[in-house]
């Protein structure tokens, strides 16, 4: 229910981390806790253990760069969640099991699961577009046209973070790559 301009220009700034953030290239010092700067990524859906569990369970294999980012985001999860994902990943493949059964109904049920994960990822792209990409384009347009953007909330967001997610990823490239690799999770069609 948040206005996209408010999310982009105000709230998002508080969700950004200080890892891969050009405004804090060395991280953040927690005075009284540690003397060296610490780097943390901002909040991101990649930190969701649910999504990563489904990827492992359904056998969704991501490209190397995306996989590295997702694996790194596991360090932000509760230890039991990380362990669950790891445990699922070392078990025999559910996808292989379903294929070995040669059961049309089981195959369809599996593909429905993949389609639901795919639908979620497509929805996520739409939300990111609405709350980040479109407001970023508006902010760029305001700057380009030299309008007085002081009253515009979108102008409060740092320009260097326009194409980045709150977790530090190149947002649309990452999201589309992850979504497209999810499509590879569908079982191959067999002739009847």
TrEMBL record:
Keyword Metal-binding listed: yes
Location of the region described as Disordered in the Swiss-Prot/TrEMBL record: 143-164
UniProt xrefs under InterPro entries: Indolamine_dOase, Trp/Indoleamine_2_3_dOase-like
UniProt key word Iron: yes
UniProt keyword list: Iron, Metal-binding, Tryptophan catabolism
Family matches, as Pfam families: IDO
Protein family according to the UniProt entry: Belongs to the indoleamine 2,3-dioxygenase family.
Protein name from the UniProt record: Indoleamine 2,3-dioxygenase 1
Organism of provenance: Ataeniobius toweri
């Amino acid at each position: 229910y948040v206005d996209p301009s408010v999310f982009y220009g105000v709230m998002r700034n508080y969700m950004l981390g200080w890892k891969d953030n050009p405004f804090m290239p060395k991280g953040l010092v927690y005075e009284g806790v540690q003397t060296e700067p610490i780097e943390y990524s901002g909040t991101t859906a990649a930190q969701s253990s649910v999504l990563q569990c489904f990827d492992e369970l359904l056998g969704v294999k991501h490209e190397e760069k995306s996989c590295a980012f997702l694996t790194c985001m596991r360090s932000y999860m509760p230890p039991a969640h990380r362990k669950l994902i790891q445990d699922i990943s070392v078990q025999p493949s559910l996808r292989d099991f379903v294929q070995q059964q040669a059961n049309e109904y089981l195959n369809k049920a599996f593909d429905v699961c993949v389609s639901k994960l795919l639908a979620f990822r497509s929805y996520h792209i739409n939300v990111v577009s609405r709350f980040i990409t479109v407001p970023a384009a508006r902010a760029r347009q305001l700057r380009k046209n030299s309008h007085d953007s002081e009253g515009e909330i979108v102008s409060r967001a740092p320009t260097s973070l326009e194409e980045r997610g709150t977790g530090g990823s190149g947002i649309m490239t990452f999201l589309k790559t992850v979504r497209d690799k999810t499509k590879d999770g569908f079982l191959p069609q067999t002739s009847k």
